[in-house]
Design goal:
By secondary structure, this protein is α+β, with helices and mostly antiparallel strands. It folds into 3 domains: about 90 residues, Acyl-CoA dehydrogenase/oxidase, N-terminal domain (Butyryl-Coa Dehydrogenase, subunit A, domain 1); about 110 residues, Butyryl-CoA Dehydrogenase, subunit A, domain 2; about 140 residues, Butyryl-CoA Dehydrogenase, subunit A, domain 3 (Up-down Bundle), CATH 1.20.140.10. Strand 2 and strand 3 form a beta hairpin. The longest helix has 27 residues. The strands form 3 sheets. The protein has a 4-stranded mixed β-sheet. Strands 2-3-7-6 form a 4-stranded antiparallel β-sheet, with no helix packed on it. It has a two-stranded antiparallel ribbon with strand order 9-10. The structure holds flavin-adenine dinucleotide. Flavin-adenine dinucleotide binds next to strand 1 and helix 13. The site of flavin-adenine dinucleotide has 19 residues, from strand 1 and helix 13.
C-alpha cells in the first residue's frame, strides 16, 4: 500500500498549502477545532468572514465538490480529501454548512432548472442558511415512519406536523424536508421532498437546549403551511430516494481524522504543561501516559479508516458498511479524547468556560458534554453497528 500523493496530488496539496499560508487571516486559525464557535457564533462572525468567503469563492472552494458550471471547483474525491486535510492542518474554517454539503448537491442531481437557478447561487454567496427537516418525535432511526403530512391543494401543498432536533432552524431561511404525501402507500413510497421558506405563515420554531446549555437544535411545528408545488423536488412520492441522496452527502463528509489527531496532540501538549500541586499531572497518574498513547494510536486508526472510504470513492465504489465503521469509530473516539481530557484536567476540569479556575478555558468540560451528540446525529452508534453486522459481517438482522 502506497500512501504517498501522486505528482498531481502533491502539486494540488502544495497549491492549497500556499493559498492558506498567504490568505488565511491569523485570527481565523483554530476556529472549529474543538467545536468552539457554534451556530450563534458563526452567525456573528458572518460579516467578519465575508472577505475569507470571497477568497474561497474565487477558487470555487466554498463548494469544492460542485461542478464548475454551478460555481464549484469540480474537484475529484482525492482532491477534496487533500483540501480537507490541509484545511484541518491549518485549522482553517471552511464555509460549507448544510446548503453546500447537503441540499446543494441534492438539487444538482434531482432539482428542476428553476430550483437550481433560485437556490444554488444564494447557497454559494452564504446569504441563505438551510436546515434539515427529517427527524420527528416518532421517526429518527426509523425515518421512513415520519408522519408530517403534505396534502395537495390547488397549486400548493399544505403541511401539518412536527419536526424535531432541527439544527439551526432558529436562524435558517429555508428548510429541505420530507413529508408524507400518500397515507395508503408502503411507508417508503408515500414520502415527498420539499423546499420550504421558513418565513411561511404557520411555521413556529422552539429552540431545544442541550445538556451543554446551548440551543443548537429545535422543534419545528407546521400548522397549515402552504408550500408552492414548484418547491417539490423530483416526483411526488419519490422523496425517500432523494432524501437518501442527501443523507449520503451528509455521511460522506470526511475531514475529522486530521482534526482528531490535532486534538490529541494539543491534549498531550497540555498534559505536559499542566501541573497539579506543583507536580506534572502525568506523574500524578500511573495510567495517563497509556491513555494518551492509546488516543494517538486511535487517531491514526481513524485516519486509515477514512483513507479506506476515500480510496473506494476515488475508484467509483460506494462505501457502505465501511462508511459506518468510519463514522462509528470517529464519533466514539471523540468521546474517548474528551474523557482523557477530563482525566488530565482532574476535578477542576468539570468547570465550564467562564470560570477563572477552568483549565484550558473549559474546553475539555464542554467537549465531554458535546461529543455525545455525534454518536447520535446522522445515525446512532447502534444503527452503525447493525449495518456493520449485517452488511459487513453477513450476520442475520435480529
Ligand atoms: C446534535 C444533533 C443534531 C441533529 N440535527 C438534526 C437535523 O438538523 N435534522 C434532523 O432531521 N435530525 C437531526 N438530528 C436527529 C438525529 O438524526 C436523530 O436523533 C437520530 O437519527 C436518532 O433518532 P432518535 O433521536 O429518534 O432516536 P431513536 O431512533 O428513537 O433511538 C433511540 C435509541 O434506540 C436505539 N435504536 C433505535 N433503533 C434501533 C435498532 N433498530 N437497533 C438497535 N438500536 C436501535 C438508538 O440507537 C438509540 O439509542 C440531530 C441529532 C443530534 C443529536
Amino acid at each position: 500500500m502506497d500512501f504517498r500523493d501522486t505528482s498531481e496530488e502533491a502539486a494540488f496539496r502544495q497549491e492549497v498549502k500556499e493559498f492558506l499560508k498567504k490568505e488565511l487571516p491569523e485570527r481565523f486559525r483554530g476556529i472549529g477545532l474543538y467545536g468552539e464557535g457554534g451556530l450563534g457564533d458563526m452567525r456573528a462572525r458572518f460579516e467578519e468572514m465575508r472577505g475569507w468567503r470571497k477568497k474561497l469563492a474565487t477558487k470555487g472552494w466554498i463548494a469544492p465538490a460542485w461542478p464548475q458550471e454551478y460555481g464549484g471547483a469540480g474537484l475529484g474525491v482525492m482532491q477534496q480529501f487533500i483540501m480537507n486535510e490541509e484545511f484541518a492542518e491549518a485549522r482553517a474554517p471552511q464555509m460549507g454548512g448544510m446548503g453546500v454539503a447537503m441540499v446543494g448537491p441534492t438539487l444538482i442531481i434531482h432539482g428542476s432548472e428553476e430550483q437550481k437557478k433560485e437556490h444554488l447561487s444564494r447557497i454559494l454567496s452564504g446569504e441563505v442558511q438551510w436546515c434539515q427537516g427529517f427527524s420527528e418525535p416518532e421517526a429518527g432511526s426509523d425515518l421512513a415512519s415520519l408522519q408530517t403530512r403534505a396534502a395537495r391543494d390547488g397549486d400548493d401543498y399544505v403541511l401539518n406536523g412536527q419536526k424535531i432536533w432541527t439544527s439551526g432552524a432558529q436562524f435558517a431561511h429555508w428548510m429541505f424536508m420530507l413529508a408524507r404525501t400518500d397515507l395508503e402507500a408502503p411507508k417508503h413510497k408515500g414520502i415527498s421532498y420539499f423546499l420550504v421558506d421558513m418565513k411561511s405563515p404557520g411555521i413556529s420554531v422552539r429552540p431545544l437546549v442541550n445538556m451543554g446549555g446551548q440551543a443548537g437544535f429545535n422543534d419545528v411545528f407546521f400548522d397549515n403551511v402552504r408550500v408552492p408545488a414548484k418547491n417539490l423536488v423530483g416526483e411526488e412520492n419519490r422523496g425517500w430516494y432523494i432524501g437518501t441522496t442527501t443523507l449520503d452527502f451528509e455521511r460522506s463528509s470526511i475531514g475529522s481524522a486530521v482534526g482528531q489527531r490535532l486534538q490529541v496532540e494539543a491534549l498531550i501538549q497540555f498534559a505536559k504543561e499542566h501541573r497539579k500541586d506543583g507536580q506534572s499531572v502525568i506523574d500524578h497518574s500511573s495510567t495517563l501516559r497509556y491513555d494518551l498513547a492509546d488516543r494517538l494510536l486511535e487517531a491514526q486508526v481513524g485516519k486509515m479508516l477514512s483513507y479506506r472510504v476515500i480510496t473506494m470513492q476515488a475508484k467509483g465504489l460506494v462505501p457502505n458498511y465501511e462508511a459506518s465503521m468510519t463514522k462509528l469509530f470517529a464519533s466514539e473516539l471523540g468521546q474517548r479524547i474528551a474523557r482523557t481530557g477530563m482525566k488530565v484536567t482532574g476535578l477542576y476540569g468539570q468547570l465550564v468556560p467562564g470560570s477563572e479556575w477552568s483549565p484550558a478555558r473549559g474546553r475539555y468540560a464542554m467537549s465531554y458534554i458535546q461529543t455525545v451528540a455525534s454518536t447520535i446525529a446522522g445515525g446512532t452508534s447502534e444503527i452503525q453497528r447493525n449495518i456493520i453486522a449485517t452488511r459487513g459481517l453477513g450476520l442475520p438482522r435480529d
